[in-house]
Design a protein that fits this description.
Elements lengths: L4 E9 L2 E8 L7 E10 L4 H5 L15 E9 L13 E4 L2 E3 L7 H4 L10 E2 L11 E5 L3 E3 L6 H19 L8 E5 L5 H10 L3 E6 L5 H7 L3 E4 L5 H7 L3 E6 L4 H5 L5 E9 L11 H5 L4 E4 L5 H14 L6 E4 L3 H9 L5 E4 L4
Helix pairs in contact: 3-4, 3-9
Pfam families: ADH_N (PF08240), ADH_zinc_N (PF00107)
Keywords: Metal-binding, NAD, Oxidoreductase, Zinc
Protein name: Alcohol dehydrogenase
């Protein structure tokens, strides 16, 4: 009997995406096979598209914001509890080493494992109608959540969600969200729903109405004056979520931090953030990076979103238009999602 087939969008060489027909894989030890229903497009997909990430090898199927249905379960303790028909999400963390000498893994901090293998970077990801994932990389979706909503929450959503919940401040504290794109529009919602006073920071006034509709209480046009002074006029930011890929813009926010304030860097720019020791010392300010999270973190981010009404603003493309979707994402559209059920 002929093996059932799937379609995958494959990076065969830098910046070339080709559709291929492949056999649907069988799950190996600790693996599940997922019928992909939706895949979110993240700016980090450019690492796959350009083959610009350490350890990457082509050909490769990109995509690390995945939501779908388990259709086959392999043996092993990492698949325990999963069954066919379960709705799951898969994010950045594909596998970690789980070695007893790994400080990150033994501490349960799997996302910082130095031997992490990233979904859609080191392992084939979600630009496909089916994919394989290790059982412990799957996050259970809340009942009734739409796949096109769940997929982006497994990277963009969990990134801002974790950054906030791992840096708890008193209710009503001022949280600034720099950039109102794929990360930022979720950061505003999560921060607002967590009880913070939220200020959105973006260039120009075009996104003022959008920011306020998402739950922002204030809006700062970064082109209209000194952003740090504007933040200090509001009392200073306890947290700044820096979501835009712009290190120079992040630099300008540091003096807007309150005492004990933290600039959390989420936008992966290659340029340096400039800060002097005195800027940090005098009021115990800090600059911190934050990665996305584990499957359990994604599960929590999805559950919080459903409970509190956090919604992803999506631009849906059918799977056959994956390259057009990628180009739209890189041009700034948020949040671009491939609906694998559309032809």
């Amino acid at each position: 009997m002929a093996q059932a087939k799937m379609i995958a969008a494959v990076v065969t060489e830098p910046n070339k995406l080709v559709f291929e027909e492949r056999a649907i894989p069988e799950p190996k030890q600790d693996e599940v096979v997922i019928q992909v229903k939706a895949t979110g497009l993240c700016h980090s997909d450019c690492f796959a598209m350009t083959a610009g990430f350490p350890g990457i090898k082509l050909p490769l199927v990109p995509g690390h914001e995945v939501a779908g249905v388990i259709v086959a379960v392999g043996p092993g303790h990492r698949t325990a509890g999963w069954k066919e028909g379960d709705h799951v999400g898969v994010g950045w963390l594909g596998t970690c080493c789980n070695e007893p000498v790994c400080e990150a893994c033994t501490a349960g901090d799997f996302i910082t494992c130095p031997k992490i293998r990233v979904t859609g970077i080191h392992n084939d990801g979600g630009y496909a109608t089916y994919m394989v994932a290790r059982g412990d990389s799957c996050a259970r979706m809340p009942e009734g959540m739409d796949f096109t909503q769940a997929a982006p929450l497994c990277c963009a959503g969990v990134t801002v969600f974790n950054a906030l919940r791992h840096n708890v401040r008193p209710a009503g504290a001022l949280v600034a969200v720099q950039g109102i794109g794929g990360l930022g529009h979720l950061g505003i919602q999560y921060a607002s729903k967590m009880g913070y006073r939220v200020v959105a920071v973006s260039r120009g006034n075009a996104k003022t109405e959008l920011a306020m509709s998402l739950g922002a209480h204030h809006y700062i046009d970064s082109e209209a004056g000194d952003v740090a002074e504007a933040l200090q006029a509001l009392g200073g930011a306890a947290i700044v979520l820096a979501t835009a890929f712009n290190a120079a813009a992040m630099t300008k926010l540091i003096n807007g931090l309150a005492r004990n304030g933290v600039l959390i860097v989420l936008g992966a720019d290659h340029e340096p953030i400039e800060v002097t020791p005195l800027q940090l010392i005098t009021a115990r300010k800090s600059v911190q990076g934050h990665p996305s999270g584990t499957a359990r973190d994604s599960q929590d981010a999805m559950a919080f979103a459903q409970l509190h009404g956090v919604k992803v603003t999506t631009k849906i493309f059918p799977f056959p238009k994956a390259k057009e979707a990628y180009d739209a994402m890189m041009a700034g559209s948020f949040r671009v999602v491939l609906d694998m059920t559309q032809e």
